[in-house]
Amino acid sequence: MDFATAITTLNGLLTSQQPASFNSSWIRRHAPRCYRFIQVNFRREYGGVDWDRLTYALERRFQRLWKPERLTKRSFYEDRFEIEAIWEKYRDKMYVFIAPCDKSDKHIADMIGISFVRLAQNGNLLARRELCDLIRFTVDTWIERYETIARWLGHEEEMQDQINACIRRYRYTGSFLTYLFRTLECAGRGIAPYQAYSLEIRRDSADC
C-alpha cells in the first residue's frame, strides 16, 4: 500500500458507508490495513500519528466529517526540541509564510501551521509563540491585499486575541490559514476601515 492507495481506499469506504462522522477508531474498524499503513507512515515530526495530513488529502466533503478523539486538558510546558523537529523538516520552506509561489507552497504553509497548532493545543507555549510570529507575515500580506483584513490596522491586540482563539479552537482538518482568514474577515466587519480612522486623526490634529 502507498499514500494514494490509502486515500483512495478511505474515500471509497466513506462513500459507501456514509458515516455521520469518523475518526481513527472508525478507520481501524473498517479499514485495518489502511490503519496499519497510517500508523507507520503518517508520523508527525515530533512523534505521534499525523491525522491532519491524512484527512487533508481526503475529498473535501469528507474532511468536515472528521471528529478527532477529544483532547484531555493538558498542562502548559515549553519544549524546544518539539519546535526544532518541525524546523528541521521545513527549514528551507519557511518562506511560504512570506512569499508563497503557488498552491503547493500554500499547502506546505498549512501543514507547518497545523503542526504548530497541534503542539500549542497540547500545551507547548513555545509552539504558540512560534506560530504567531510566522502567521504575522501572512496576515501582513492579507492586510495589504484585502480591505476586510486591513480593517484590523490599529487593532493589533484585538487581532492577536483572534489569532490565539483560532489556534485554541481549531478542530476541522481543512486549511488552518483559510479558517484564520475567514475568522478575521467576519470579526473585522464591525471595525471602521483604517483609512477613515487615519483621516479622522488628521482632522483632529489640524484642529489642534
What's this, in brief?
It is built from twelve helices and no strands.
Mean pLDDT: 87
Strand content: under 5%
Shape: globular
Residues in helices, as a percent range: 55-70%
Q: Cα-atom Rg, whole angstroms?
A: 20 Å
Description of the molecule:
With 208 residues, the protein is mainly α. It folds into two domains: 61 residues, no CATH class; 111 residues, no CATH class. The protein is built from twelve helices and no strands. The protein is globular, with a radius of gyration of 20 Å.
What keyword list fits this structure?
12 helices, mainly alpha, 0% strand, 208 residues, globular, 2 domains
Indicate the topology.
Elements: H1 3-17, H2 24-30, H3 32-41, H4 51-57, H5 60-63, H6 80-90, H7 103-122, H8 125-145, H9 147-150, H10 156-169, H11 176-187, H12 194-207
Helix pairs in contact: 2-3, 6-7, 7-8, 10-11
